[in-house]
Design brief:
Length: 921
């Protein structure tokens, strides 16, 4: 009989076979892996692979696949290679299905028409769920089951029928019952943000893979937090539905038939919209017709007709959350209040969560862990520390008699009933019960390895069978989140957790929060359609930029579109625009932009099923129908084809604005003309031309304007030693004085806006002190002047209800540098030592700057400007965030980066080489 190590070796060899088929081979992986793995793709993957795996949300990728704008095989190969790199970085894979995935992709590409709602989408899966087919080896991390065939998975059969591509299977821990992922077969899976911290469990392989963006949609399983914990630790989204919504038929596990407490599959994703997409598709096949244990209930949108009531669980009465988790709760609770929701406290102490754990830990192992321990013993497999913790160190776990089991299940049901009564009691004072509970998904960020010993923040909702979702909020900031040295722990578990916290150890780690709803109200609480559900509010209404914290440290944050709002019934009337207002916080114009076309574009397949709708005005306790109003209007200067202005005009249109693009030569505005926009001829350098444009806009709008975006501008790159003074005068005329000219002309129209007028000046991140790129001093000075003008306008016009905004744009791929001849150094320039590098930078090819394309930049800016109250400072584009930091830190802090951007690093190196080279005698 083979020893357990020999059996494990066979499994590892099988995994290596799949990894060995990766083509082309992974090159450029450092011998010593960095603590944070997020930079690895840039040195190993191709630019195209990075684009495919990072650019799209799930719905966006499905859209381009259906349109055949990209081949399924190309997408599949990109995700296979990124998953293989994720394996190197985190040890997250059980199997890389190279041959099967490529074959499947080629088949899908060969079809005359796209097939299924998931056509071509790569989906990753947790190993113990099994796979499509009848003879798939599934061991569920038990050595004894290695090489044992298992049946097909019903859920995966349905997803496969919808056209997806299964390409990897991911790791899970021994017994599938850890909040860590470690087994005797594959070892430990680590966090892609910090190798010293856990990726979570039990779906830790999925969490690490998605956190590394080696997948954008995966399937995990949850019985105690197994999709929510790893999602929280890796800064992604996940949803645990109520039991018996999604089938587990075909999954492999111990104690088959146990119904004391059960597991449910759940989606894990990089964006919130795809959570609902997954649920809709998973239930669209009516799986209850094959698996009779399921609730016969399709995914049905929930209509919400009043302001949301959110209860905040600050702690569970057992373990106090770490400071960054508490900070996140405070920030999100405040954002809820600002969005018009009622926020109350959820007092857990009378509900005795500790008693809940005593019941639940016994429910997990009604045989005292006998089957699991015997299975490991039979294979000679060692019992790992966290397995001992969850089975042998829990006082409530024992081999129950039948009567003891009945008694335990009665305690479970009594506890559930008591909790339900407490929830219902929240309506006593005003007739409105709490809609969702906002709470931590874990005491803090990802724990150090082998220290994930407190399950209460996720497992409690498994005991109650409440649907729950997690979503990213912020990251650990040692300055904002110092340890409270005066805190006195309440019990041993609290002390264990308190002692774990070290803000420097956790720096920049993701912090997620959790939303919990009542049993069977998955649609109402689910993490997907924030337009029609409670998650609508806490993930869309709440995610208004400027209203809650951003997560700049995360490698792949996605800008969350402003929400449609909880006060919108789940459909919209085509051809009409609607608005919503709250007496204290939600402005009238907030929903004007949500036409049916925009809803489709924003939410894709999740767009309400597009039915007719009424939108209601918030009145704190009730809603009243309101009259449709017109779109907000915006004039944008400098909109020639290929420019940032052109891209922004199209993006603002997509956000429901009536856009007036302008330019000196209308013949150069073909792109915006083709989109049906009303173009205005205007030379921002001519008083007469600007005055004529004002009259044109008056006729089109009836005399008002809601927003003016001064975008027209020009660049000039040259060392200050060689700057042409006349050119500099021209530069300031366009970049500075034209802003004054156009603003003065249009302010009379802005003062007549009924929506809260905006003046947005597209300045530049290079104009910030400490952020200037070498050889762009004159340009940066003009933009600094423009930024200063904007700041003055902000204060001067605020009393009149006009909001002046500085749009600090970083590097963006556009035609900006095409409007002038290539910049060249004078022949006698002292900088010619590094001529090639410096001229490359002067012409817009700054080394090391990752520039988004104009469309991506414009979508982000349009989202920012379409908020109820856009921020006064907006930073978008390559290195814009770094420029902002540079303006805050001591001068010279980021000189090394700035030198690289301008080619100064090359200059210094060449000068040093010249000095060290002996001169000929």
């Amino acid at each position: 009989m083979a020893t357990y190590k020999e059996t494990v070796s066979a499994a590892l060899q099988q995994r290596d076979i799949g990894l060995g088929k990766v083509e082309p081979k992974l090159q450029g992986v450092p011998d010593e892996l960095p603590l944070n793995s997020q930079s690895l793709p840039q040195g190993v993957l191709t630019a195209r692979e990075i684009e495919i795996t990072e650019k799209y949300s799930v719905i966006e990728l499905l859209d381009v696949l259906r349109k055949r704008e990209i081949k399924v095989e190309e997408v599949t190969r990109a995700f296979l290679r990124r998953a293989a790199l994720a394996q190197v970085a985190t040890n997250c894979l059980v199997e890389l299905m190279w041959d099967q995935a490529i074959e499947r992709a080629k088949y899908l590409d060969s079809l005359p028409e796209p097939k299924g709602k998931l056509f071509g989408l790569p989906i990753s899966t947790k190993e113990h769920h099994g796979m499509v087919g009848e003879n798939v080896s599934t061991h569920a991390s038990f050595v004894a089951w290695i090489g044992k065939a298992h049946g097909s998975n019903l859920l995966y059969d349905h997803l496969y029928d919808e056209g997806c591509v299964f390409y990897v299977r991911t790791t899970q821990p021994q017994t599938i019952m850890h909040l860590e992922t470690i087994s005797n077969i594959y070892g430990r899976t680590v966090n892609p943000y910090n190798r010293d911290l856990t990726a979570g469990g039990s779906s830790g392989g999925e969490g690490a893979l998605l956190g590394f963006r080696g997948s954008i949609l995966g399937v995990g399983g949850d019985i105690g937090g197994s999709v929510r914990c790893p999602a929280a630790h890796n800064g992604i989204y996940a949803f645990k539905p109520t039991l018996k919504r999604i089938s587990v038929m075909g999954a492999r596990s111990i104690m088959v038939g146990k119904e004391t407490v059960s597991s449910t599959p759940g989606p894990m994703t990089v964006d919130r919209e795809s959570l609902e997409l997954f649920m809709e598709i998973a239930l669209s096949k009516k799986p209850w017709l094959i698996d009779p244990s399921l609730t016969a209930k399709p995914w049905t949108p929930f209509k919400f007709d009043r302001p949301l009531k959110v209860a905040v669980q600050w702690w569970d009465g057992v373990v106090q959350p770490h400071p960054p988790m508490t900070r996140a709760l405070k920030e999100v609770a405040e954002a809820c209040r600002k969005a018009g929701m009622e926020v109350v406290d959820w007092d857990c102490e009378p509900l005795d969560h500790k008693k809940g754990w005593e019941i639940l830990s016994a429910l997990y192992w009604p045989d005292g862990g006998k089957e699991a321990l015997e299975l490991m013993e039979a294979a000679g497999e060692p019992v790992l520390p966290l397995t001992k913790f969850i089975i042998q160190e829990q006082p409530s776990v024992k081999d129950l008699t039948m009567h003891e089991l009945w008694e335990l299940c009665t305690k479970r049901d009594d506890y559930r009933a008591a909790y339900a009564r407490a929830w219902s009691y929240t309506s006593k004072n005003d007739g409105r019960e709490v809609d969702v509970i906002l709470c931590p998904p874990f005491p803090g960020a990802a724990a150090p390895h082998d220290q994930s010993r407190y399950w209460g923040y996720t497992s409690h909702w498994n005991l109650l069978d409440y649907p729950a979702a997690v979503f990213p909020v912020t990251t650990v900031d040692p300055e904002k989140d110092p340890k409270d040295l005066n805190y006195v722990p309440k019990n041993d578990e609290d002390k264990f957790n308190y002692d774990l916290y070290n803000p420097e150890k956790y720096a920049n780690m993701p912090i997620n929060l959790q939303i919990v709803g009542r049993r069977q109200y998955d649609e109402k609480r689910s993490s997907t359609r924030w337009v029609e559900s409670n998650w609508v509010l806490v993930l869309q209404l709440l995610c208004l930029r400027g209203s809650w914290p951003e997560t700049p440290q995360l490698r792949h944050p996605r800008v969350v579109e402003p929400g449609v709002g909880a006060t919108i019934a789940p459909t919209m009337i085509e051809e009409e625009r609607h608005v919503m207002e709250s007496s204290d916080s939600i402005s009238v114009q907030w929903l004007e932009r949500y036409t049916i076309d925009h809803i489709k574009k924003t939410f894709g397949l999740c767009a309400f099923s597009i039915r007719e709708v009424e939108v209601f005005r918030v009145n704190i306790y009730r809603f009243q129908p309101i009259t449709p109003v017109s779109l907000r209007t915006i004039l944008i200067t400098g909109c020639s084809d290929g420019s940032l202005g052109s891209a922004l005009a199209l993006a603002m249109k997509d956000h429901g604005w009536r856009v007036f693009p302008s330019g000196r030569n209308l013949a150069k505005l073909s792109k915006v003309k083709e989109a049906g926009l009303e173009c205005i001829e205007m030379d921002v350098g001519s008083d007469d031309s600007v005055s004529a444009a004002v009259e044109t806009v008056k006729q089109l709008t009836g005399g008002s304007l809601d927003a003016l975006l001064n975008n027209a501008g020009s660049g000039y790159s040259m060392p200050l030693l060689h700057v042409d003074i006349a050119k500099s005068h021209g530069l300031f005329e366009l970049n500075v004085f034209s802003i004054i000219r156009v603003t003065q002309a249009f302010v009379s129209l802005l003062l007549k806006s009924t929506h809260g007028a905006l003046i947005i000046n597209n300045t530049s991140a290079s104009g910030l002190l400490g952020a200037g790129i070498p050889f762009q001093g004159t340009y940066a000075a003009s933009k600094a002047a423009a930024a200063s003008l904007t700041e003055s306008l902000r204060v001067e016009l605020a009393p009149f209800g006009i909001r002046a905004i500085n749009l600090f744009t970083g590097g963006v791929k556009s035609t900006f540098h095409n409007n002038s001849p290539d910049a060249e150094l004078p022949k006698d320039s002292i900088y010619n030592v590094a001529k090639e590098a410096i001229e490359s930078s002067m012409n817009g090819n700054e080394a090391g700057m990752n520039k988004p394309d104009a469309t991506t930049w414009a979508k982000q800016v349009a989202g920012d400007l379409s908020q109820r109250k856009p921020p006064y400072l907006i930073f978008r584009g390559g290195s814009a965030g770094l420029a902002r930091l540079g303006s805050l830190f001591p001068t010279g802090t980021f000189d090394s980066t700035v030198k690289q951007l301008g080619g100064i690093d090359v200059l210094e190196r060449k000068l040093k080489e010249e000095k060290s080279t002996p001169k000929p005698q």
